[in-house]
Write a structure and sequence with these properties.
Helices cover 14% and strands 37% of the residues. With 145 residues, it is mostly beta strands.
Length: 145
């Protein structure tokens, strides 16, 4: 039996999938477009939620992150390199705009969040909230290494 949170997550994933379908050119076939993969995990001492997003080939200046209440939003664009003078034999890498919305199962303190980008991985570290904050929107700047 699924929980309300599972149903909400499924609804968001279906919504993201439908958005991806409308963004793709008709000639692209069954491909979904660029949708970065995400890992999330909790640590203790310190109490933090870590989110790792696979963004190989994405310019860090093209990545935006914000946390609003119980959701983390990551969006940007992986731009296709110039194709002039190239004849492709195979074309599998997805490009274009992307957006991931990650529901947060725990209360975090977005004002103390840290973000870094290294070797194509965006790592966001969100300390757990000590008290229940009111609605907050915080934009994070991504450091590059």
């Amino acid at each position: 039996m699924g929980s309300k949170r599972d149903v909400e997550r499924l609804g968001r994933e279906v919504h993201e999938l439908l958005e991806d379908v409308w963004r793709l050119p008709r000639f692209s076939g069954p491909r979904r477009g660029f949708r970065p993969q995400v890992d999330c995990f909790l640590t203790r001492e310190p109490d933090e939620l870590t989110v790792v997003v696979e963004l190989a080939g994405v310019d860090p200046d093209e990545v935006h992150v914000d946390a609003i209440q119980q959701e983390l939003r990551i969006w940007g664009e992986r731009r296709r390199p110039p194709t002039e003078g190239r004849v492709f034999q195979q074309l599998e890498i997805d490009y274009g705009p992307f957006e991931r919305r990650i529901p947060l199962a725990v209360e975090v303190d977005p004002a103390r969040a840290r973000a870094s980008y290294d070797a194509g991985l965006l790592t966001l570290v969100l300390p757990l909230a000590q008290r229940r904050p009111g609605p907050t929107k915080v934009e994070m700047e991504v450091e590059t290494r």
